[in-house]
Design a protein that fits this description.
Blueprint (H helix, E strand, L loop, with lengths): L1 E3 L2 H5 L1 H4 L4 E5 L13 H14 L4 E5 L27 H6 L1 H14 L4 E6 L5 H21 L8 E6 L2 H5 L1 H4 L5 E4 L1 H8 L18 H16 L3 E4 L9 H7 L4 E2 L6 H9 L3 H12 L4 H15 L1
Parallel strand pairs: 1-2, 2-3, 3-4, 4-5, 5-6, 6-7, 7-8
Helix pairs in contact: 3-5, 5-6, 11-12, 11-13, 13-14
Bound molecules: phosphoenolpyruvate and magnesium ion.
Length: 302
């Protein structure tokens, strides 16, 4: 599947070989403008995306602002640790007025295709329950007003905070699907600011600790009969499709331009080979050892 943020990217869906949208970064409807998009504007945008996806699944992530993404219309205070601060679902659960507008638009748009709702930055089952409660309120409001919507929308979460990965067995009982956000999962688990170039050498997707968190999440999903995807940059990094598949991940979403190479990567290896690779990476002593194992494997696969 493809990751989509900018409108231009949904125009590329048909030609990229993508089977749907695994991550729509809905916050892009909110950035760089002085007013917030109203329900109708959002409804039209989600509907357009569903029509472009041609009956394939579209996973819309609810508003993930804060961190490095500023929304001028919200006038949020500057924080000392924005990535650890007031952002994403934390804002939505506090500003349910905003959240309700988005959820209403999503429920209405879901009549036009296979839309799924995904909550970002979930750190506990309480947050998931609270978010689902607001979703119920959105449905009640639409019911009361007699507005048409699709009541059967699957609701999943991004697993991108290490405690969510560790407690994935609990979360899997109440989420319809998982999508691992490796960009943030690596940032938080390795304690490395993802946009600070001075320490980018510590940002290691193949750190065995990161791989163990991914494997744990996928195992919990599998045992509870739900899908576990990856929608961070790692999914589209050359060769990583095999690694993630071997770790138990069942869906991948990436920038459209990375899809052909990822498909070729998966087609060139059996599932047993992917598992063997993943097991040796999980057993590596360090990120460097794992990177060497991975590089050798890539060399042999040529
Ligand atoms: C992620 O954290 O991996 C992710 C996909 O979300 P974003 O990059 O938008 O934080
Ligand atoms: Mg993220």
């Amino acid at each position: 599947a493809a990751n989509v943020a900018l409108p231009r990217e949904s125009d590329e869906l048909a030609t990229s070989g993508a089977e749907g949208v695994g991550l729509f970064r809905s916050e892009f409807l909110f950035l760089h403008q002085d007013t917030l998009p109203d329900e109708e504007t959002q409804f039209q945008a989600y509907r357009k995306l569903l029509l472009a996806a041609n009956n394939h699944r579209v996973v819309v992530r609810t508003l993930d602002i804060g961190g490095d993404k500023e929304v001028p219309a919200l006038d949020l205070e500057k924080e000392q640790n924005p990535f650890l601060g007031y952002r994403a679902i934390r804002i939505c659960l506090n500003r349910t007025d905003l959240f309700l507008v988005q959820l209403r638009a999503l429920l209405r748009a879901a009549q036009y295709g296979a839309l799924r709702i995904m909550f970002p930055m979930i750190s506990s089952v309480d947050e998931l329950r609270n978010a689902k409660q607001v979703l119920r309120e959105a449905r009640d409001l639409l019911d009361a007003e007699g507005v048409d919507y699709n009541p059967n929308v699957k609701v999943g979460i991004m697993v991108e905070i290490p405690v969510a990965a560790v407690c994935a067995d609990v979360l899997a009982q109440e989420a319809d699907f998982f999508s691992i956000g490796t960009n943030d999962l690596i940032q938080y688990s390795c304690a490395v600011d993802r946009i600070n170039e001075k320490i980018s050498y510590l940002y290691r997707p193949l750190h065995p600790g990161v791989l163990r968190l991914i494997a744990m999440t996928a195992k919990a999903a599998n045992e509870n009969g739900i899908e576990c995807g990856v929608c961070g940059e790692m999914a589209g990094t050359p060769g990583m499709a095999s690694v993630l598949c071997g770790l138990g991940v069942t869906n991948l979403s990436m920038s459209a331009s990375a899809i052909p190479a990822a498909k070729a990567d998966l087609a060139a290896h059996s599932y047993a080979e992917c598992r063997e690779l993943a097991n040796s990476l999980l057993g590596a002593a360090s990120a460097e050892d794992a990177e060497n194992i991975f590089a050798e494997w890539r060399e042999d696969a040529k």
